[in-house]
Design a protein that fits this description.
By secondary structure, the chain is mainly alpha-helical. It contains 10 helices and 2 strands, in the order H-H-E-H-H-H-H-E-H-H-H-H.
């Protein structure tokens, strides 16, 4: 481990590599997806975006489970790469971005408050955007009828939280600060990135996640911890994924 500051060109190249293997690639695909949706008959209003879908036919649940678990594990590779890069010049990356066990009560309470502050208005924005034809219908859980559906959805929620908060906030904000970016530029850049890689959901998804990105970036700049962000994101996704799985079969408006 070196304590010497990395040259700016090295940091920029590193940022391109990490983002191209993770959230940056998702943002590019999301742009392509929404262009495809907008140019289809019916556009966003008739579009359905499926998440957490089965990866094998219902007759082979063991194959589906194997593929689900493998996908979750491999999704952690870009996270490991980002942490590895931070460790090369900044020391312990978990302590650096506040993903350690020093303040568990603060992380849990702060995460719960953030989840409530983001989740309730976000749900209202989703339904409003759908009513206006500005958002696709989100089918949040499409697994076969298997016993492990809920555990996999919980793990998927945790995966999303770690991937997006470690790379998109902890790693990205740390490197942008090393490049002497100011707080406003950092918050705006992360907000736009988060909104863009959710653009496949529609313009409501873009706006809601851009606002969430601004709040999370500001929270990290103030608290220097991704712990509360991971907790908040995990709670939000668990409610969305598991809630959809349990409620959708019984109501028509989802």
């Amino acid at each position: 481990m070196s304590n010497q500051a990395l040259p700016a060109p090295v940091i920029r190249r590193e940022l391109v590599i990490v983002l191209a293997l993770s959230l940056g690639a998702s943002a590019l695909w999301a742009v392509v997806d929404i262009v495809a949706t907008l140019t289809e008959p019916g556009g966003l209003a008739d579009s359905v975006q499926s998440m957490n879908s089965a990866r094998a036919e219902e007759e082979r649940p063991w194959l589906d489970l194997s593929r689900q678990l493998l996908s979750l594990v491999l999704a952690m590779a870009p996270v490991a790469l980002a942490l590895h890069f931070l460790a090369l010049d900044r020391g312990d990356p978990f302590r650096l971005i506040g993903l350690d066990g020093r303040r568990p009560a603060f992380d849990l309470l702060g995460g719960a408050v953030l989840a409530a502050a983001i989740g309730i208005p976000g749900l209202g924005l989703y339904f409003a955007a759908r009513a206006l034809g500005l958002n696709a219908t989100i089918s949040a859980a499409n697994l076969n009828d298997v016993w492990w559906a809920v555990p996999i959805l919980v793990l998927a929620a945790l995966k999303n939280a770690i991937l997006e908060e470690v790379i998109g906030v902890g790693y990205l904000v740390t490197r942008l600060r090393q490049l002497a970016w100011g707080p406003v530029a950092i918050v705006v850049s992360h907000s736009l990135l988060r909104g863009t890689y959710h653009l496949y959901q529609g313009f409501g998804g873009f706006i809601g996640n851009a606002v969430m990105g601004a709040v999370f970036a500001l929270a990290f700049l103030r608290w220097k911890r991704t712990g509360p962000l991971v907790v908040a994101h995990t709670l939000l996704d668990i409610v969305a994924f598991v809630g959809y799985l349990l409620v959708a079969p019984h109501v028509s408006w989802l």
